[in-house]
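input
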Amino acid sequence: MMNERYVLAKERLGELLDENLVSAPFGQYFKSVAVFLLQLADLYEQIDGGDYFEQPIEKLAEDNKKMYEDVMAGQYDTSYANPAYACKCLGKEYGQRLSFLYTQIRSCITDVFEQKLFGLVIHMEVFLEIYASFYYAAEEGDTLPKVEDVSEILYFFVYDYMDEMTMERVREKVDPAADFAYRIIMESDLSDLRYLYRFGEYISENQLGTARYLNQVPQEQLRLMADTYTEGYRIGFVKGNKDLSKKKVVQIAYPIGFERMIKLAIENFAKLELQPVIMRTPHSIFTKRGTNIAGYYSQSPNKQYEYDHREDEALFLDKKLANRKLELQKQAHEMYKTLAGLMAGPAWVEVFGEVPFSPAVCEDALRLSEKQQQLSTWYYGQLGQLVNAYIPGDERSFTIIAFPVPEIGDRYEEIMEETIRLNTLDYQTYEDIQQVLIDALDTAEYVCIKGMNGNETDLKVMLKPLTDVVKQTKFENCVADVNIPVGEVFTSPVLAGTEGLLHVSKVFLHELEYRDLRVVFSDGMTTAVSCGNFEDAAEGEKLIRENVLYHHESLPLGEFAIGTNTTAYVMGRRYQIEDRLPILIAEKTGPHFALGDTCYSHAEDVAVFNPDGKEIVARDNEVSLLRKTDMEKAYFQCHTDITIPYDELGSLYGERADGSRIMIIENGRFVLPGTEKLNEAFGAS
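output
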């Protein structure tokens, strides 16, 4: 049946190229997109033939470029995937819808490589249905079909196929039998870089360069990278007081190019009796959320393109669709509830080094209305609760580690070696020094943080009181387990009384650069946000609300931490890559503050202990405690760390109830007795 639909759709696309009833500029659009769909069909058949990947790597690279060049910098300005160009050519109402359609069609490139005929066919068919509406309007003497008719076709395309797409996505998340990437990793000759093109993702010099580098490093270095990653995952369960033996599945999320390391990691996980699921990061409107990465991934061919289409669901998001999505998620999780119950949690590999991206505002890009923003926030809140019911937060853990990519510059290999050293710093040294910090902070009622060198931070963070100083502690002693590399102590602040301004001159969050970022808190909740990315202050606030607050009116200060990894800070300064360090490393290079849920989200009731045997009691705040009375208000499904670098930190001190101070950091240096060793790295800068 699907093959018959494919043959008919392909035949109709061919006929379309010879038809001229739909006049310019729409005729040009339809013919251009039809050519692209026929290219996808041709590629599907070549791969189905079985020997496509035996071609020279130059030919595979050429084909890969053809698939993605339309949205790459230089060509994006005249691509129908660009809402501005589509609206200029086709008018705003048609342009927005047809740009979305083309972008959605582009999302099925990966279906072609996975040989998922269903995905290719339904995109062919919806394209032809839209074309038919223009064709018949022209045939009947009307200039164009009604915009409402085009919108309705797109709406029901999403509505009707949401069930298959949701079911498949949930299966990929929990079922090791969904093994497309696993087979590439485990069965390919990884010394032959042609394997990279099997994924169907855009392959840039970052992926090629990473794979080349890992092909020439000694096996023991690869083993060290993999062991650090998987051992951190194991230790996370031990420190979190969670039983790993109950779990059988681990989700691996990583950047393409690291397959040699991931292959060793899979072998390590097997020794822990864990099978991997390795799902692709979503590209389709059916599964993606903004520009978030949620699986194995490659470099974007153009981040502006991704950013312009981050809110495409504005075309059709309404209560009916949101309810349907939620019901389908429930059905899918129920279908796979046994496997979901065996999910241990994600093991992430991140990369850094790409040139920081600061988005431009596209006035023609689709934007969620205020009502849709509220609906989206509600939906993801409900989805978070649903997922937690099937994959309980108090039973799962995670780990995350980061490495550079070649785009970081000519000293890439040197920076990679330094990062590996950073990721394997002595665990015990940091644990001992951080315990000194924690013992001092446990006597404080609150902490004050003040900036310097142009940093205007002036914050007061309230700490949870202890009822038993012998058995309890306020901060977790975090070394190299779930968050690699070593280096932080963190707590869930008391919100009442937490207030002031958080300010950083420049920070990189979720692949977006923010300049002169300011966040104001009152009773631990954000009350004002701004940044200097745009001349129009309103656009800066909108950027933050969309990509940091995720459309929530306000977020709590879910975490306060003191990063202790001065070695990471000095590495960033030495190579002048501070603006390219990922949050994972950047958060260890100074005090940081997380907007959103606490670090113990959905697992607050699990007792957690530091190495000294004391229970970490600051796992909740006033918002997360609402789970006991109003679950919908307790969680936000986000957690974003913002770090003040040491050279912008004037002072950080604790204040006791009697008014005495415990000075921790002054003028960017640790001054608390017992922590001076952390300053040694600065001498190497």
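quick obs: The chain has three domains: 2-145, 180-310+336-367, 425-684.
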